[in-house]
Amino acid sequence: MQGVGEVRRVSLVDEPRLRCLLTQAYTEVMTMLPPASRRITELEGRATITVAEAATLIGIGRTAAYEAARRGELPTRRLGRRLVVPVPWLLEWLEGR
Asked: Which end of the chain has the least Cβ crowding within 10 Å, N or C?
């Protein structure tokens, strides 16, 4: 097993091996981040998340998140029968704007 910071030379011809090494490196970096930061990086590219995902992100229970949404404390939108949390709104809300 290699230590952190060691460099391994890989031929660009060995694309599957390179992909595997990049995946391993990404996994190592993500495990070094604090849990909240890791979850926030997972929001990139998503327009909405579920209320349950928002609850996990902010560290409250699912029921408490639905109650906060009902009271208007958690920014949500209804899509048919689904209640979703728009990611840009959530990020602004988390920043306290």
From this structure: N
Please name the amino acid found at residue 50. Answer: T
Q: Where are the beta strands (DSSP E) in the chain?
A: 48-50, 77-79, 82-86
Q: Which residue has the tokens 């981040």?
A: 33
* 74 compared with 34, residue with greater pLDDT: 74
Global pTM exceeds 0.85: no
Q: Kindly state the average pLDDT of the residues 49-68.
A: 90
Record the tokens describing residue 36, joined without a space.
């909240």
More confident residue, 60 or 43: 60
d(CA 93, CA 97): 6
Identify whether the C-beta of residue 76 lies closer than 8 Å to the C-beta of residue 85.
yes
Give pLDDT, residue 59.
85
Neighbours of 58 (CB within 10 A): 17
Structure tokens at 59: 């560290």
